[in-house]
Amino acid sequence: MGAPGTAMDSLSAALKCNIIPNQEYLLQGSVLDQYVEVLLHRLRGLCDNVDSGPESFQDHELCFTLRAANPSPTSIALPLRVRRALDVADAPWQLRYVGQQELGDKSRPTVVRSSIDMACTSTIVEFLTELGCRVDFEYTARGYMFRKGRMKITVSKIFKVGGMPNKPEGLEPISQSYLVELSVLAPSGQDAIAEDMRIFAEQLRPLVQLEKIDYKRLGN
Amino acid sequence: MQQREEKQLESALESIIQRVNDLKNSIASMIFRVENEFESINWPTFLDNFALISGQLISLSKVISHDKCPSLRNYTVLPLLLCPEKDEQLAQVTEHRVTTFSHDLVPDYLRTKLEPSAEKKMLQLEQKAAALTYENAQKQVAAYQKVIQHVWDIISKAREEWEVEAGSRGSTQQNSSVADTHLLVAAVGMGKGLKLGPNPNGQPNPTSGGMMVAPQGRPAGQGQIPPSTQAMTMNKAPSAIKTNIKSASQIHPYGR
């Protein structure tokens, strides 16, 4: 129990000092493959990086969980995500903690969840494994990133890793749609940004319905 | 009696000054935003600012027309002394907009009438209006109403067409699928359909541990795993896992 305890302690200590952007405001949606070009075109018009065009990315994400040594029904597994760029060779890896999402009531326009991320090196995988973390699942995301002020919009295709052994790249898309995410990282208490996000999401309708999605209702 | 009137005047002036100051502040902030945030300001905020200013104007005119407010028209403001020298106190009171109480500024500030040219024009228009016969006026009003009605009809028709079009487009063209959204979100957020581990009977698969260990086997300091190596590691997995994934996905169909 020692290792998870200290990890949680340092996290809560980090959360207490209210200067780091540790809250993620999030809206999610999807667009069918055949309309993704229309969406990208609209985003190109709406977002800040008009001249340079959308930034493309291809990331591999490993999701680890750290469970208590003696699992009991009440113990919660600590999720940790490791992300690395497949298209940029010397980019640092990213370690990220994403907390439980808060849906709030109807007056709150977005999902809010705590989020802490940091750059790290490739040895993070060994480090986490040594800590006792286990890979829960992994996927590859390939798509485009847009910026609008503090808002980040990603449009990405999610692939199963190693899903299709007969394909050379071993990538199998898990659906016929692109995942669309609108998010802002901010220090806690900056709820005004959520309203801006709602207005921006409104401008993407009916192409994409960006919504608060309750994970609990999706089932396991 | 006179004392009471004076008191009334004082309180009325005070509330007028306060409202004028409010108005001045909101106009100043509006100008500031237009000048400094013209890139990021959006139309709704812009309109909100206008609404605020118009609300303050209404409240100002309410104060002026209130019963308790003495008729300001009956009071005279008389310039006793004009001076071309700089007046520090005046500058301070007016926030450095007026620095001298001189002969070229005072007529503008104490003016109660329109400019002579504007006054002349108003007079001309009034005469023209007075010269109009009743029948003529009625005719003009009718013609004007007809034109307005016509424009109104055109706009309503366009709106109706636009709404019908938007409505039909919304129902026929589906750009996104709720099922896909839920599938993707569940996959990225919780690993639904991506998990290597659990097999159909819900028990953790022992081989998933092997998958996890794979990166551990790499010599330390090798740096990043090239994608091909990663894929190969996956391909080397026992074939049982693949069938497991398949049957697991059948048990948990995506479109729930």
TrEMBL record, chain A:
Pfam families found in the cross-reference section: Med18
Gene Ontology MF terms: transcription coregulator activity
Coiled coil segments of this chain: none
Location of this chain's protein in the cell: Nucleus
The family this protein is said to belong to: Belongs to the Mediator complex subunit 18 family.
Function: Component of the Mediator complex, a coactivator involved in the regulated transcription of nearly all RNA polymerase II-dependent genes. Mediator functions as a bridge to convey information from gene-specific regulatory proteins to the basal RNA polymerase II transcription machinery. Mediator is recruited to promoters by direct interactions with regulatory proteins and serves as a scaffold for the assembly of a functional preinitiation complex with RNA polymerase II and the general transcription factors.
Protein name: Mediator of RNA polymerase II transcription subunit 18
From TrEMBL, chain B:
Gene3D superfamilies: 1.20.58.1710
Polar residues bias: start-end ranges: 241-250
Primary subcellular site in the record, as a coarse category: nucleus
Annotated GO MF terms: RNA polymerase II cis-regulatory region sequence-specific DNA binding; transcription coregulator activity
Protein family (similarity comment): Belongs to the Mediator complex subunit 8 family.
PANTHER family listed in its UniProt record: MEDIATOR OF RNA POLYMERASE II TRANSCRIPTION SUBUNIT 8 (PTHR13074)
Protein known as: Mediator of RNA polymerase II transcription subunit 8
Organism, as annotated: Brassicogethes aeneus
